[in-house]
Amino acid sequence: MLKLTKKADYGLMAMKHLAEHAEEGSCSAKDVAESYGIPPEALAKILQRLTKAGLLHSQHGINGGYKLARDAHEISAYEVIRAIDGPLFITSCITVRGECDQTERCTIREPLRKVNQSIEDVLKSIKIAEMTEANDPTAGERKKTLDELVTLT
Questions:
Q1: Which residue among 33, 44, 60, 153 has the highest number of C-beta atoms inside a 10 angstrom radius?
Q2: What mean pLDDT, rounded, does the chain reach?
């Protein structure tokens, strides 16, 4: 079962919150944590990772907090997940080293690589701004595009 980590969930929720409140300036980690019931200590570490990855800017001081480093239309779900969890691999043979006990006899390595790439492509196509738009007029069009991305031939 493919599943995002809780940290990735929290990171995406925080990015969505910051995108929705971008016009208000910076948001404190405490405000974001309270808005979604996220443990503040966990969120602080996640926001630090997102800042280190260049997805957020942090500001210190009385009006300090976090804000998006780029426009929400330019930041993908993939970037957020990768900043928090590292590279996405659905199986060990897709890693950089690509080693497992079955390497010599494996007949599914290439199909699994395609699945992994399709998942990455879908996540790269989803922008944080799209996660905030409840009434997206291109939703039907996007669904078709996403369906095409995950079709294996």
A1: 33
A2: 84
